[in-house]
Amino acid sequence: MKVLGISGSPRAGGNTETLVRLALETIAQEGLETEFLSLADRPIKPCQACERCRGTNPPRCMQEDPAFEGIIEKFIEAQGIIVGSPVYFGSATPQTMAMLDRVGYVNRFAGNFLRRKVGAAIVVARRAGHNFTFAQINYFFLISEMIVPGSTYWNLAFGRTKGEVLNDQEGLETIRTLARNMAWLIRKLYG
Q: What is the mean pLDDT of the chain?
């Protein structure tokens, strides 16, 4: 059983990566395999809605884009997927949404490989925009027929400069609880 954790931040080593890695470390302590993927060095092109992914076997996006290579396979092989994003002007980063749009189209047109997998959003912001971004990512999971676990609060923390999120103790504990709940759910579904 494997969980893929994705940081949709354009900044490597930032607060979003810190939270996603914290979730993955907690999940690994629960005995599940984990993999981390950063979009910081992946300038993913947006979906062109060309629908050439329709019926592909194995499922794949037909757009030429080295930054997107291997991402569909990672989503297929994982039983759980964490998507983290900082808040940019009230929503998820363009990198995050480009990835989700392209994975979503391929999923929809090539077999619904995300159905009944476990998905969790993690959001970080300086002050506001958490709720919309959190909902935005969760909408992707829900329309993909995924199962979304909860925590003691929404999966978010506050921070702007690198490392600042480590000062939000409630946020950190919320992420740890989410990770334990996600591991429990995956074991129940796939164990």
A: 97
- Cα 165 to the center of its chain, rounded Å: 18
Secondary structure class of 138 (helix, strand, coil): helix
SS3 59: coil
Is 20 within 8 Å of 82 (Cβ atoms)?
yes
CA distance 106 to 69: 13
Residues 36, 5 contacting (CB under 8 angstroms): yes
8 Å CB contact between 84 and 6:
yes
Q: Is 189 left (phi over 0), alpha (psi -120 to 50) or beta?
A: alpha
Taking the C-alpha atoms of residue 158 and residue 169, their distance in angstroms, rounded to an integer, is 10
At 123-148, the pLDDT tens digits run: 999 999 999 999 999 999 999 999 99
The Cα–Cα gap between 90 and 110 comes to 31
d(CA 121, CA 138) in angstroms, rounded, equals 6
CA distance 47 to 80: 23
What is the spatial order of strands in the sheet that 2-7 belongs to? Answer: 33-38, 2-7, 80-86, 118-125, 156-158
Amino acid at 3: V
